[in-house]
Amino acid sequence: MFAFYTATSMGLLWLELSATAIFLSRYDAEQLPWIYLASAGMGSVASFVYSWLQKILPLRRVIVVVAFLVAIPLLVFRFSLNLEPAYLAGISIFVMRLWVDAVELLNDLNTTITANQLFNIREIKRTYPIVSSGILVADVLSGLSMVFLVWLFGLGNVILAACAALAIGGCILFYLSQKYQQAFPDSPKRLLEEDQPNLTTRRLQGPMQRYAVLLFAFFILYYVLYLLVDFQFYSQLEQRLSGENIAFFLGFFNGILGICEVATQWFASSRAMERLGVFFTVTLLPASLVFLSLVAFWNFFVCLLFLRFADELLHYTLVAAAGPLLFQPIPDKIRSEVQSWVRGISEPGASGITGLVLLSIIGLVHIIFPNLSKAEFQSLQGQIFVALIVVLSLIWLLVIWLLRARYVGLLVLSAERGQLSEADGDLRTLKRAVVEALERPGTEAYKRSCIELLSQIAPQEVNEALAPLLPNLAPSLQHQSLEVMLTRPSPIYLDQVRSLLDRPLSPEVLAVVLRYIWLTEPEPEIRQLRPYLRQEVDPVVRGTAAALILRLGTAKQKAEATNTLRRMLAHNRERERVMGCRALGETVYLQALRLHIPALLQDESLRVRCALLEAIAATHIEEYYPSLLRGLYYKSTRNAAINALVRLENESIPMLVQLAEDIHKPDIVRMHAWGSIGQIGTLEALDTLVVHLMTAWGTTRRNILRILLKIPQEAGIDGVLDRLGRSGVEVLIDQEICFMGQIYAALLDLTPERVRGREADLTRRALRDLQTDARERLFLLLKFLYPLEAMQAADFNLLSGSQANMARGLEILDNTLDIPSKRVLLSLLDRRSDLEKMQSLVGMVTYRPKTPSDRLRYVLELRHFLADWSLACCFHLARHARWSLTAAQTIACLRHPRGFVREAVLSYLRVASPRSLVELLPMLRNDPDSLVAAQVEQMMNESEIEALLS
User: Fold this and answer.
1) Which of 405, 478, 845, 906 is the most exposed place for a label (fewest CB within 10 A)?
2) Residue 492 gets which letter from DSSP?
């Protein structure tokens, strides 16, 4: 892709330089506005043609066709330069200059679409900067080589060199489309019924809509100013140079500019945005335009060269890199739509607007000053356009300032809705603006979101930001702020926090203030906490004071605090006991209070038991860790137990894994054990989940996949891709496909025509359920490689049952997937017969027809992959059809943790091997499942009766 983009960009730049030189030699620069005006329509036509080609050709054909279509007209342009009569050559030159803009648009479309097909949404973040740097490399190579090409072959023949470079790029693209066929859909793109632009418009309301309007204004001004500088630059060149000299100068200028662009992109762009902030970085361009334009009134041509240099340099490096960050406040689900809408309309719109403005100004100057000489006219025109650049740059600065003001508000709104990623936005701007928002009047909910946002983006600086604001915040906000500050307490802000004690405070706020002061004070005076131990003090404050004394006091002080907590833990009032348990969690050593834990674990109050579970985790009392695991068994204490286990972090992982792997435990308990590991979220937790993902199957694999997908900030997705890589996820997908192939093979050999009866119907239904489970796991795995929204949309449409919706779902997958088994997967999800689906699996699963009994025995060899109910159905079918199963299969399933599976095995043995059953029954008499135990007892009684009769 880098080679393709570099080759095509070199061809495009050679074409642009030669076409511009030829155009300026034939026409005045005053004709450039017609080019700008016409290019707006040309861009719309090119986009329409590209979309139309996608409807009639597969995408991998479209990209190659377009790559060669942009090159072929260059041959015509080259040989039409010397046409007679002369006006035909003039028309050809004008169209050729217009074709440059069309080629640029089509090349960008080809590059972005191909990159999006070859790389998934996570790979594109790492690969596209490398691909896009091809144009910067091309700037250097094409610019410096332009002089030699013109000298060797002449200006007109440089067009042929451009044609060759574009053709080489087309050949590279053809190789990519053949080498990675699975990355491209085989069918032409169909139109979806939904109107996507209308959907975007409906969902952009209120502040979001106003922000989108400002973005639109930002990019309109961005392109208009670029074209104004472009026009003035070429006007000055046309006045001072001609023909090949223009090409020589442009080549040298672009070569030097390209070197600076590469250096800026590689070494300065990311550092500038990180240290200066995105908005300050963006303002560098309009500020430079204002400064250099004002200087240009004294030394026009030299300053104009610097103006063009600065505009090109900052346009393609800093502003181009910062542009996507401006879309961060828009929700993920519509961000790409809004981005394409804004960028797609603003560029051709700006080109048309600039063309009209330039033509209008030139016309008015001719009308108002008809007697000016050409030199005077060009000088006046230049001053007018420079003044216009200054005015528009100042307006652009105002738009950037308005964007910054609304940028933070939308990100805070996203944080309030739980939609904010820590990676979103510009940190320096956010920190400053969030503090300003907290100082201004506003709703409590809004300020709560501001504090939450500040704790996410600047956790190390949160004390500095919040401490001065504490006296003016509402009690609930004071409590939240102090809790956040306690994550990184600092003595520097002690005086500001201590000053709150001079004010009337709610018990909750007072308790947090005491914790901050006495945990941060270098030499705390514990005696000052004794008044808070009195009985009339609120339990929240009393418990906090007692916990602090137990942590920091002398032996005598600790004894007094212990007595206080003992009275709270044994108090009749529930609130006293709850606060006492919470205070236990703040102590370092429980000492004598440990004796109260067994009784509190049996307390009649649910709140007390839940508070105690959190205290056990906070104080790391290992002997009571089993109580945390037992809390997972009961719905009332489950959330508290999960929070306590998550608080233990890596310490709790081994016992959670042991519980989750125990197949004899209830499924819901095992699921919450895996879920607790996912909520821990450490590297060790991710390693544990990924390792078990590779070996688990069925419900366990499905649960682990769901847990990994739910980990915030896509940490679970990134963790899987970092540890397994894309190839590892594809292996898991192939495993599910192969399993589905085995199920289709079983369905083909156990057809209703060959095996009849209720048991056979139940078995076939159970096998279909296994396919449904495998299909669900497939879509969960696909979400690790592709956008969640696309996979959810495809899944929803495929499950709808409507033929039109299923076709739409397959179309989404066809245009999104690029895995090697893509064709097979689409065939399995399509509405086809079992035989056709089995045939599509050739190369992955070998199918040899078997007798029904052999096929059932083969299915039972895969028992580790079967669901419990399908396993039971297989034994019921074997009993009904009187087919023999192997001893290994029977004994293994007789040890199955599910009672109904053991019950099915006993029913089978009763028919297939009564003598073996008689020997096994005494060992199963004490089965933990009451139904199985009753069945065993009944069979033993029947066997005794039969023995007496015989």
Assistant:
1) 405
2) G
Most confident of 21-25, 201-205, 237-241, 907-911: 907-911
According to DSSP, residue 189 is labeled P
Tokens 């662009």 belong to residue: 261
Closest of 869, 879, 86, 478 to residue 94, by C-alpha: 86
Distances (CA, A) of 591 to 65, 271, 610: 79, 53, 21
Residue type, 305: L
Distance of CA 84 to the CA centre of its chain: 59
Strand ranges for 14-121 from DSSP E: none
Q: What is the pLDDT of residue 158?
A: 85
DSSP state for residue 531 in the 8-state scheme: G
CA distance 99 to 120: 32
Pick the CATH number of 2-205+223-277+309-319+334-372 from 2.50.20, 1.10.8, 1.20.1250, 3.30.70: 1.20.1250
**By the 8 A CB rule, do 214 and 402 touch?**
yes
- Report the SS3 class of residue 633: coil
What is the per-residue pLDDT across 236-279, written as a single tens digit (0 to 9) for each? 777 777 666 777 777 788 788 878 877 887 777 767 766 677 77
pLDDT tens-digit readout, 375-396: 677 677 778 888 888 899 999 9
DSSP output for 554-607: -HHHHHHHHHHHHHHHT-SSHHHHHHHHHHHTT-S--GGGGGGHHHHHT-S-HH
One DSSP character per residue, 235-269 reads HHHHHH--THHHHHHHHHHHHHHHHHHHHHHHHTH
Distance CA 509, CA 741 (A): 62
Helices (H), 133-243: 134-153, 158-179, 196-203, 207-240
Three-state secondary structure string covering 67-88: HHHCCHHHHHHHHCCCCCCHHH
What is the domain partition of the chain in residue ranges? Answer: 2-205+223-277+309-319+334-372, 711-846, 850-950
Mean pLDDT of the chain: 82
**What would the DSSP string read from start to end of 694-731?**
HH--HHHHHHHHHHHHHSGGGHHHHHHHHHHHHHHHHH
**Cβ–Cβ < 8 Å for 900, 793:** no
Q: Which amino acid type is present at position 663?
A: I
Euclidean distance between CA atoms 612 and 625, whole angstroms: 12
Omega within 30 of 0 (cis) for the link into 468: no
Backbone dihedral angles phi then psi of residue 557, each to the nearest 5 degrees: -65, -40
Q: Which residues contact 757 (CB under 8 A, 6 or more apart)?
A: 877, 880, 881
In the block, tokens 């450039």 appear at: 32
Q: How far is CA 612 from the centre of its chain?
A: 38
231-234: Cβ within 8 A, 24+ apart: 231/29, 231/32, 231/33, 231/36, 231/354, 231/358, 231/385, 232/304, 232/307, 232/308, 232/382, 232/385, 232/386, 232/389, 233/304, 233/305, 233/307, 233/308, 234/20, 234/24, 234/29, 234/32
Q: How much helix, strand and coil, in percent to the nearest 5, is found in the chain?
A: 80, 0, 20
Tokens of 318: 């800093």
DSSP 419-488: ---TTSS-HHHHHHHHHHHHHS---HHHHHHHHHHHHHH-GGGHHHHHGGGGGGS-HHHHHHHHHHHTTS
Sequence-ordered list of residues with C-beta below 8 angstroms from that of 551, at least 6 positions apart, any chain: 586, 587, 588
Determine which helix (DSSP H) or strand (DSSP E) holds 369, and give its type and residue range.
Answer: none
Is the pLDDT at 424 greater than 50, yes or no? no
Spatial distance between the Cα atoms of 314 and 301, rounded to a whole number of angstroms: 20
Contact 275, 379 (CB under 8 A): no
CA distances from 767 to 122, 212, 761, 857, 865 (A): 35, 51, 10, 14, 12
